[in-house]
Amino acid sequence: MKSNLAIVKTAIAIAISLSSYAYGSGNYSHNTTQTTTIAPTPISESQQTLAKVFPKYTTVFGIKVRGTEKVPDEKLLHAAKIMAEYLDNNDDGLIDNQQVVGTLLANKATLAMIADDSELQPVRNKVGNRKKLPNLQDLKASETHPNGAARGVFDGALEEVLHLITRLGYSKVYPEALGERHGSLIADAMDKARGGRFDTIPDSYPENAWFTYEDESCDYSCMITEYTYFALTSMLGGQQFPGRLEKIQNEWKLNTRDKVRSGDPDVYDILTNPVYLLPSVLPDGQYNSATFEIKTGADEPSTTAHDSATKAEQPLVVLLVAMITVFGKVML
Fold first, then answer.
1. Residue 163 host element (H or E)
2. Which of 67, 168, 187, 228 could be disulfide-bonded to 71 (CB atoms 3.0-4.6 Å)?
3. What single DSSP character describes residue 211?
4. Pairing between strand 110-114 and 136-140?
5. Residues of the chain with pLDDT > 90: what percent?
6. Tens digits of residue pLDDT in 192-202
7. Cβ neighbours of residue 331 under 8 Å, at least 6 residues apart?
8. Residues 6+ positions from 247 with CB-CB distance below 8 Å
9. Measuring CA to CA, how many Å separate 44 from each of 10, 50, 51, 102, 168?
């Protein structure tokens, strides 16, 4: 009996070791989709409304990127690729932070694209504003500029897609560090960057402040969203092309990685902490691990979950179960 038990323990150890290798190595299997089939969930009334107002859509790791009829297909696909790059920053086909994507899915996070300002109010009249539908993040096709930095134009997809991911993903998974509320590490860093804690936009900021956001419709949590975006994209090189600083310096002054490192070491340490698995490379709209297809019409029920084993890992899980079963019979 003892020898049989030893055999079982050895078998389990080998199987777990193999399984751990698959889970821990981003190089084990490339171009695999991290999904597993689950029971379909009903389509809610709000989702049906979104499907009518934003009939075009594609899916990034289960997250919807939607657009009105007037949104050019190439702009919607570009936004999807930017999202994929943020979530799979090394473009190996594997989600970098499963918890973040799982939380985005649980919150039904959706990127909602309109063509331009002319569609903004008509769309809001149909679906409501962000307070009514907090799971939405809007993006205008008119502000979406693939490879815009080469032309001296900022690509708005880099901002709005990141807003969705940090607001409904990272801030929920890491509330003590990245939570969009008073007392989190990122909030304390922001208060220092603004020269004090301001729950609303002040009449004027202290002279030594380097984050001086001006949109009076933005509440405290929204300010953290903006602060995270400015700091992270500056660290990744997205705010340093010629002419960009002149356009943003009324709100943000540290537009390069070196400036953030020396001028705001608190936020630099937070956003480079490997525990959070934040992006370390700026997306460029070139994502090679998946091809996105635009669909139209009624939405599809969710039938996949993105927090499970990859296709490459599943055989190892099966192997583990089989080995335990076989050697369990040996013990009997």
1. helix 156-165
2. 67
3. B
4. parallel
5. 70
6. 999 999 999 99
7. 1, 4, 5, 8
8. 154
9. 49, 10, 11, 19, 19
